[in-house]
Amino acid sequence: MSIGSGLRRWTARFGDRSTVGSDIRAGVVLGVESVPDGLAAGVLAGVSPLYGLYGYMLGTLGGALTTGSVFMAVQATGAMAVIIGDVPEVQGDDSAGAMAMLTLIAGVVMLGLGIARLGSLVRFIPSAVLIGFMNAVAINIVLGQLDNITGFESAGANRIMRFLDTLVSVPQFSWPTVLVGVVTIGLILLLERTPLGALALVVAVIAGSLLVLVLPGGSVATIGDIAEVTRSLPTPVLPDLSLFGALIVPGVSIALVGLVQGAAISGSIPNPDGRYPDASADFRGQGIANIVSGLLRGMPVGGSSSATALVRTAGAKTALANLVAGVVMIITLLAFGPLIEYIAMPALAGLLILVGVRTLKIHQVLLVWRTGTTQITVFLVTFLLTLLIPLQYAVLAGVGLSIVLHIARQSNRVRIVRWQFDDPGGHPLEVAPPAVVPHDEIVILSPYGSLFFASAQSFRAQLPTPTDDSAGATVIIRLRGSEELGVTFLTMVRDYAEELAAHDATLMLVGVGKRLQDQLDATGVGARIGGGNVIPVRPRVGDSLAEALAIVASRNDDSAR
Fold first, then answer.
1. What 3-state DSSP class applies to 134?
2. Is 311 part of any domain?
3. Could you tell me if residue 4 is inside a domain?
């Protein structure tokens, strides 16, 4: 593709004159709504709310320019924010360098996976793992805001213990703080049913914050108590390289969570041309957005399903809507920066608690519960780990569990059948393989499933066992479609060939592709089996098997003479 055509294709994502009006309206809605949302993301992460706002602003702009998905809104998600809340290195007043390092790690991982075109990897994570993780994250979002909505600073090793501490400390609540939070939640629920729609949460947060003015002075915390907001854009910051080792695990975990959530958007929302975007291109776009966010004091970001749904519902036609949303956030910051300091913390906490409750997907949990013991176990393990240990480790544990489950599932799906022919030119009849290798017979075996190291034992257990009565037999294994076999599997094949030879029987492999033939030659397994017993794959299905049968017939004729 030439530079000119590539540039034209890129500019086409921003539409034309016919779509500008719709995109501007949708962008204004998303931009205005994203200001309190971004501040809330910072609160949820336990860092300066400005990190959240900067992440929203820069992520939305970067995503609009670089993702494969035209509509994807790249912002800080609840799951990512909760993970950040479990990273002590980014907490505290002097954490800009640490946050930059964390965000850059996540961005580089995303960009690297996108460049390597590994967007399809997310499909290997089972739904039970994702459902367990996301529902536990929803509970963590709610529990993480109890301090902000009650005004009581709880103590405990994790959110569950801090929740229990909060339950037994009701007399110590700050009731003006509780009032602001409850009023905000009530207003959101009420105003959502009006023409305000998505802007209801903006009005509710402002109204809840105005309520602070009539309450006793200093009794309710505001953003100004933890951060100074000026009419200025974020300045560049250098990452704290000394924290790379400490932040690599949470950085990778954040990247994986962001990519999984982004992939859900890639696979469910087509571009305006009707085609679904390339997940790897979205990986690259999210990676670039994170790198920009990290260098300009923003927190990690990823594809946000709620923001993407909002901008589309508001009428977005192209990526221009997200671009406008980013510009609206910039204008809001420059025009009203100091006023942001007056936003009440319990108002943001009320917003987040409502988000957490709505993130719970009880119907998905019930679906998992009906699918069997294995899925229930996977769900419970992921769910409990996410509640009880830091989320960055829960994410990696979930990914590890996914890999183990995938390998176990694939290894247990290997099945061997025997082919029998009623007449030489007919179609094969599939029957169960014999338990032992019968005397002077040809046993044709055809495997189903993935042939790799974990399935070697299951494969061997289904092969007929050679005995003293197996002399003169030939076992033919069809390997058409198996591009290569691992060392474990090749060793098993070699041992089986030697076991057959020890009982005067022969092993033949048919339908062997070039890469597999190279493996057999390089490892010496082909020599152990015998060069005449390895038949290459032929273009016509069945030709290599017919060739093997002809060789066996010729050998039998020679023996008869």
1. helix
2. yes
3. no
pLDDT digits 0-9 by tens, 406-428? 777 766 678 999 999 887 667 89
CA distance 58 to 235: 12
For 410, residues 6+ apart whose C-beta sits below 8 A from its C-beta are 449, 450, 452, 454, 455
Domain residues for 529?
A: 415-560
The pLDDT value recorded for residue 433 is 95
DSSP label at 222? B
* Whether residues 402 and 422 fall in one domain: no
Contacts of 122 (CB under 8 A, 6+ apart): 259, 260, 263, 279
pTM of the model: 0.76
Burial class (CB in 10 A: 0-12, 13-18, 19+), 449: middle
Q: Which residues pair with 447 in a beta bridge?
A: 416
- pLDDT above 70 covers a percentage of the chain that reads 97
Tokens of 93: 């007043």
Q: Is 238 exposed, middle or buried (0-12, 13-18, 19+ CB in 10 A)?
A: exposed
302 and 328, same domain (yes or no): yes
Same domain assignment for residues 212 and 313: yes
- Tokens for 509? 């492999």
Q: By three-state DSSP, how is residue 510 classified?
A: strand
Q: Is the pLDDT of residue 2 over 70?
A: no
Widest Cα–Cα separation across the chain? 111
Torsion (CA) 27, 282, 62, 248 in degrees, nearest 10: 130
User: Looking at beta carbons, which pairs linking 276-280 to residues 24 or more positions away fall under 8 Å?
Assistant: 277/67, 277/68, 277/69, 277/70, 277/72, 278/68, 278/119, 279/68, 279/119, 279/120, 279/122, 280/68, 280/113, 280/114, 280/116, 280/117, 280/118, 280/119, 280/120
pLDDT digits (tens, 9 = 90+) for 102-146: 999 999 999 999 999 887 777 777 788 888 888 998 999 899 899
